[in-house]
């Protein structure tokens, strides 16, 4: 008999959020002071609602991070540190993808992490799930499955009811010799999905993930979708994101109904040294009882908050300053990974 597994949606009950503290040997070195302030704000926000598990490179970094958090009055009762080596801090893509078993235990899927198709050094990041497993982070009965296939957590989103959402650009870039049918079969099998919905449009300038879905489109429920829209006809993204919006309008739920769509407002261009940065409001993080949303110091921040409040009416919407994160072309969701209820050893 095949073991029954389920890929839970992000809005389901969580044990903790997993992050990695930035340090001088990560790519944050040139702007470490700025990004540390974002991490402090993030941990402060998370611990209002649930625990956070922080990877640190060594004991000195743990001591330093704890000092910074305590000095900012973070609830340290909800903070746990674990020592592990990592190249950088994008744990959405290097962290575990967790499936729930029928008996209450969990399977941690450990896909290959290649630094987004070999763009960056990732050998330590690719070993992170194994390091966390060996460190005893996960509850008794948890099992790790190593899968020799490049897949990042930011490339997929599930409704928790058997539907997976992803982008063709990203998966085709990682696996150019695989057909859509083949990739559909593989993803559905590994992730226990009934169907895979592919998007052929959508991108952000400055994004080096090859159009991760978590920068563009997110399930808010099995019948609703939040997405990054662009209403500025003079912006280079307008035509592509409009085409993505039409794709979403054509999608149907498992019951054959159109999805309820929540378009997010468009932030003004953020330019750094002549390079446009990928400022997306779709890169938000769902917690127990809250949604943490990236804020960029833009006039659209509050409008994005209002849209998310409509999409998640029973959750508090909390803004976290993330302008420093997009310097490395990612945002709030990209640096975090939720760990479902029961998977963390207490």
UniProtKB/TrEMBL annotation:
<keyword id="KW-0378">Hydrolase</keyword>
<dbReference type="GO" id="GO:0004668">
    <property type="term" value="F:protein-arginine deiminase activity"/>
</dbReference>
<dbReference type="GO" id="GO:0047632">
    <property type="term" value="F:agmatine deiminase activity"/>
</dbReference>
<protein>
    <submittedName>
        <fullName>Agmatine deiminase</fullName>
    </submittedName>
</protein>
<dbReference type="Pfam" id="PF04371">
    <property type="entry name" value="PAD_porph"/>
</dbReference>
<dbReference type="GO" id="GO:0009446">
    <property type="term" value="P:putrescine biosynthetic process"/>
</dbReference>
<dbReference type="InterPro" id="IPR007466">
    <property type="entry name" value="Peptidyl-Arg-deiminase_porph"/>
</dbReference>
